[in-house]
Amino acid sequence: MNAISIIPLPGIPQVHPGDDLTSFILAAIDRENVGVENGDVFVICQKVISKAEGAIIDLKTITPSPFSEQIAGLWEKDPRMVEVVLCESSRIVRMKNGVIITETKHGWVCANSGVDASNSYGDDIVIVLPKDPDASARRIRDEVKARRNATIAVIITDTFGRPWRDGLVEFTLGVAGIDPLLDLRGQSDLQGRELHHTVVAVADELAAAAGLLMEKDAAMPVVLIRGYRYAQVEGESKKLIRPAEADLFR
Amino acid sequence: MNAISIIPLPGIPQVHPGDDLTSFILAAIDRENVGVENGDVFVICQKVISKAEGAIIDLKTITPSPFSEQIAGLWEKDPRMVEVVLCESSRIVRMKNGVIITETKHGWVCANSGVDASNSYGDDIVIVLPKDPDASARRIRDEVKARRNATIAVIITDTFGRPWRDGLVEFTLGVAGIDPLLDLRGQSDLQGRELHHTVVAVADELAAAAGLLMEKDAAMPVVLIRGYRYAQVEGESKKLIRPAEADLFR
């Protein structure tokens, strides 16, 4: 088994709606002189995907509902922000102490429906999650195939908190070219010693690994992982969503 | 910023109570010819720590309580196993559909108090979590310092499920030589463009990264991570436990 490399790709510029993100990533790879190899995994923070796709909302265009006004009043939040968070959700999982945990329309459970209010463009601009992160991942994978003739996987991530454990970690929102789950049930190890009984969320482990470089520097929204061996399949991120009937914490 | 390497350490033999695990790890490092460098992070699966420390229970010695008999009867479980799971816990978080989610005495929330019934030694032998994983981590760190004169960090991990998301991921149980949380609040990035507002659970990201190699092969309980830059501090894993008052899912 070979080592896995987590390779930083610095220097990706600010992304704006309509930008060709793939060309930014390939330019960063060229600057680092690491090339693109078959089997590489591009791990990409959702924020640059959302920006490139225009998944951006100007709060000045939002009229909050009376419910949003009421929630916002209780916790000194911006009622327009609350309105966006509710509109981006399919369900409220918890609402307490000013924290709103929702299930997004994709099925991810996270704070504030993943709506990001950090002032990238200005005080009233918020960034929402990409509409279809798997489609975004497939587009980038296909563009890399067309431009560099390499078969890669793409994982789109966001930074989430967790129940019970402090600190944020990078999680998967979208995939292309890799199965987000690795099913080891029934397999024995190389020595034939022990049976595995597990399904591993490898996409989330790849996301977390990339997070080691991403989170220290907001200017590094893309990380290259090389040397991780996986089956090349289409993949779909919704396999990572635990079915409601098997979930004790809905 | 440099690349991070996740280096496999194959060939670690079955571990038994009293074994010198550090010598097994150093022998694997020598076989791989990678040496030990200052700043290396050894990520070690709890199972080999528990085995070396004798954190092993023979179910033949367990007399289940009436409550354990009752729970076991409902779900066709071994009442002696249920008894061990309850004894290893400080609190039951959920008990439903035959799944028992507990809070361990350390404060970790996980299935079955982390008790592992895979038949490593025989049908009636179960492995429990190490009593004090930080102390276990410190011991290995100190032994590596004494034997190789290198200052490393140690992370002890276990494989847990998560609410809402399918698939298992490697999580931190114990640390030595590294702060499990990286506090970026108030920092700007290299370009001075954007403020971070996050505390990152870097120990869990390192654990997950190691999981990419560990989980595929039960014979690889130790993985070496090289090139991750962190502050050398004593560290304590309980910083990863979200305070009850900030936890919406207890």
Topology readout:
The structure is a homodimer of 250-residue chains.
Chain A: E1 4-8, H1 21-32, E2 41-45, H2 46-53, E3 56-58, H3 66-75, H4 79-87, E4 89-96, E5 99-104, E6 109-111, E7 125-127, H5 133-148, E8 153-160, E9 169-176, E10 182-183, E11 199-200, H6 202-214, E12 222-226
Parallel strand pairs in A: 2-8
Antiparallel strand pairs in A: 1-12, 2-12, 3-7, 4-5, 5-6, 8-9, 10-11
Helix pairs in contact in A: 3-4
Give a short synopsis of this structure.
The structure is a homodimer of 250-residue chains. Chain A is α+β, with helices and mostly antiparallel strands and 250 residues long.
Describe the structure.
The structure is a homodimer of 250-residue chains. Chain A has 250 residues and is of the alpha+beta class. Helix content of chain A is 27%, strand content 23%. Chain A folds into two domains: 5-54 and 130-239, CofE-like (60s Ribosomal Protein L30, Chain: A, 2-Layer Sandwich); 56-127, CofE-like fold (Alpha-Beta Complex), CATH 3.90.1660.10. Chain A has helices at residues 21-32, 46-53, 66-75, 79-87, 133-148, 202-214, and strands at residues 4-8, 41-45, 56-58, 89-96, 99-104, 109-111, 125-127, 153-160, 169-176, 182-183, 199-200, 222-226. Chain A has a five-stranded mixed sheet with strand order 1-12-2-8-9. In chain A, β8 (153-160) and β9 form a beta hairpin. Chain A is globular. At the A-B interface, β1, β9, β11 and α6 of A face β1, β9, β11 and α6 of B.
